[in-house]
Amino acid sequence: MFVATTQNAIEQELFCAENARLTGNEGKARVCARRAAGIAVLAYFRAIGIAFSDPSAFALLNRFMQMESTPKHMKEITSRLLIRVNPDYSIPAKIDLLEDARQLTAWVSENIYGE
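Predicted structure:
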């Protein structure tokens, strides 16, 4: 389980993502979803004793995906969170980064100890 400040930061980003999506700003929704996932992964790294100097969500998610200990289903979710947008700033329609961020943060919350 996350400490309150981490949980609040994640919830704020997910709320921002939901609002952005509701107003038709899918680009901002993607950014906020990735940031929420990045906050969760940073907390996970801290809990398991991994020092990480680059606080960007992209770097954190990339490292998390490369770890041997990361379960396959989390690697799949993380790879979608890292997907690059097309020249028209879109991603494949079947990918929902907001849902992926929710799943990743839920998994981390269930697997984090002593953040």
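Summary: The chain has a mean pLDDT of 91.
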